[in-house]
Input
Amino acid sequence: MKKVLSPVFITFMLLFLYAPILILAFYSFTDASQIGSFQDFSFHNYVTLFTTEELREMIVNTLVLALGSALLATILGTLGAIGSFYSKSKISKLYSSVNQIPVINADVVTGFSACILIAVVFGISKDTYIPLIIGHTILSAPFVYLSVVPKLKQMDSSLYEAALDLGATPAKALFKVILPQITSGIVSGFMLAVTLSLDDYFIATYTKPATFDTISTYVVNATRGSHTEIKTALWALSTVIFVVVLLVVLGMNIYSLKQNSNQKRQEGKA
Amino acid sequence: MKFSRKVLGIPYAVFLLLFVVAPLLVLFYYAFTNGDGQFTISNLTGFFTDPNALGTLCYSFALSFVTTLLCLFLAYPTAYFLATSKIKAKSVVIMIFVMPMWINFSLRITALKEILDAIEGNLSAYPFLNSVLGMTYDFLPFMILPIYNVIVKLPVSLTEAARDLGATPWRAFVHVTLPMSVPGIVSGVSMVFLPAMTNYVVLDMLYNSTYIMGSLIGSYFSNDNWNGGSMIALILLLIICLFTLFSNTLEADDSSVRGGALL
Output
């Protein structure tokens, strides 16, 4: 029974997950203003998407915010992971428990409390972008921490000592010995941070300047309005993002397959 | 002072204190004071005596519960079939199921909304159903991934042993695989249940005007009522803590799944 059920169920689930995105992608290439009927194929949604100042601006905003806050989160989270790893176990536990708070907390609560603290208590205006950048760093730094710590645990700790014995300064040993061994954790932490920031709505809403929009806040506001031209241009945006994500995922898969086969070849030689 | 690697953690420690711990203290302060900064418990008693607020709490629980059940019902078989299938490129197939996580959620909900709009004609006619569908669509990958991660690591020899000892496939599944995949289920449930109580944007986008707990915070926020909003945030925090304490005893250590641990 499993033989029949398994492919049927998997196909159904794939349809559920992808049909809306693909149908929307199809209609984004037409002149339709809603799903169901269209007169002709057209690229006008894509023209609107790339020529409307407002739309271009929010896409750039989202990307700059994601990369900027991810960079900050990566630096903080990595330093935190290294510091916590070499601290006494009690302090290390303390790091990990506090680090866990934003991970399990609801984004609404994180965003709302960050807004009160930074904008109301500290009185830093949201127009300075400081609350927004800090907010997104709160969201993603803990995930960088979580992806770096396991790499530190896997590391051979005697290498650092060996470097010191051979005359390296602690700073040099850190950069030449420890960092290279945890690079993969840092990179995946950075990518996680980027995706978290790109997908965030709540923290941005509570901490952003009134005139600033990310993709999420823009799309949510646009669905409340009735501006058809903008609405269908967002279908084009959805399609573009889908294709970009697809390409990245494909690229990553091909890369890891290649690495695997390289490894196997080398093992064969040995 | 001698250089020590411990010192490197100081910036992050300060950051955590300042922007993770301090906001929570501020929440406490605002939740138990009124607009003039005077101590009061009226925010607390106000919530538990306001039938609308209690209704919102119940509606949130109902919505979360149904969403979580539907996610589980859809995700478990998917994860199970994928993890136990004989396909070689399992990691590629699971990637396809997780990929929607990386597409902006507001755009995915827009896509679903347009489809539902075309099918139903009038979205506001089925608010509860649409919200459950929207949230399921949004959160499903977060349920599939942890369950898959647990099942794929289960040794095949266990089910084989059960079969050799005469168990039917169904019995082997119920008595061996299912109990051993509980940590994945708990992990997935906590990834879906809590966001479903707070993610009010999904409801907004699908024209469901009923409030859930998150929308209460949103409405206090737009009225600049920090005290009332803090109390709701605190109540949510309490629910989250209870839920986490409860699930920690069963959960697999898989918190990094949010945002895509496959990277």
Q: What stands out?
A: Chain A has a mean pLDDT of 90.
